[in-house]
Amino acid sequence: MIQFEALAKRYGSYDAVKPLTLTVPRGEMFGFLGPNGAGKTTTIRMMMGILVPSSGRVLIDGLDCQQDAAAVKQRVGYLPDNPVFYDFLRGREILQFVAEMHGFSRREARERSAQMLAHWGLDDVSEEFAVNYSMGMKKKLGLACAMIHDPAVLILDEPINGLDPRASRDVQERLIAAAAGGKTIFVSTHLLDMAEKMCDRVGIIHRGALAATGTLDEIRAQLAASGSLEDVFLMLTDDTDETTP
Ligand SMILES: Nc1ncnc2c1ncn2[C@@H]1O[C@H](COP(=O)(O)OP(=O)(O)OP(=O)(O)O)[C@@H](O)[C@H]1O
Question: Which residues line ligand 1 (CB under 6 A)?
Answer without folding.
Answer: 11, 14, 16, 34, 36-42, 190
